[in-house]
Amino acid sequence: MNRRIVFLLCLAWAIALFACSADDDSASDSGQADDDDDSDDELDDDAVDDDGDDDGDDDALPPECYEPGGDEPTSRNLTPMFSSDYYAQQSSLYFDTLDSGADPLAVPEYSVLVARWEWPPWLKLTGLGKTGMIWIDRILRLYPTSIPERDCRGFDEQPFGRCHVVFYYNDGEPCPIYEEFTFNDLGEITFIEAWSDLPEFFPTPDFGDVWAQGPDVRRLSTAVPGLGKPDGLIDLDGDCMRQVAGENEDVADFLDHAADPLVSWIMDYLAWGRDSFSVGCGWTRQCHE
Fold first, then answer.
1. Are 43 and 162 in contact (CB under 8 A)?
2. Where does the chain have alpha helices with state H?
3. What is the pTM of this model?
4. Which residue, 269, 274, 2, is CA-closest to 123?
């Protein structure tokens, strides 16, 4: 099984490298338009009041770039714009893209720069860009996979979508997964984050915190700057991303992988990923009831 999956993933990444360039161009065009608008806003903000008064507070420090009010806020800056059912349905629809028996054209609302991060023992960055993500998952569907067990729910704070699911591969063995989905104000998925649904790999040491709502959760989505903008478009080359990467090792790891996804994936696989399925699926374990 592992050899076939590795071949399919390598093939998918090779296709995605070409597909992602179109996504990057689209995002760059959108970013340029935003920059033009911002320049007008800055001119208005800097203009002197007609009465000559200075209404600014010289003692107030500007927010950090990743904070609310900053240029690249994190996802916690956003509040739900859609119903909980919408976020749950879109999250569940994502698994149709990986289920061999589902509609092959079924795709959730992806942002143009959607990213997927799968924590070890999985291989971290496994999708970047809408077009690349779609093609990667279509190729993976060639390996018989079903995901009949799904519990997806919507939440009032990011990540707005969260799911406990069980994958069944060709050999019939179950693989429990916990997955989270970050959305922008347009209802598009901007970030996907996955863990094995097992105590030793769960995002919090409190395995009883089924939906990862406690204080000790380690997730990447709420640390990546830019996901908290209305469009949720991140800037991998931006000053804020580099600043946060210098302070947060998980963001730095994400940025390193995003610089060359295919090479990073292959290196991770050769280093420690060969037993990902046997370890990450915990073949003899059971997922949450």
1. no
2. 2-46, 84-96, 130-140, 239-247, 249-259, 261-268, 276-281
3. 0.82
4. 269
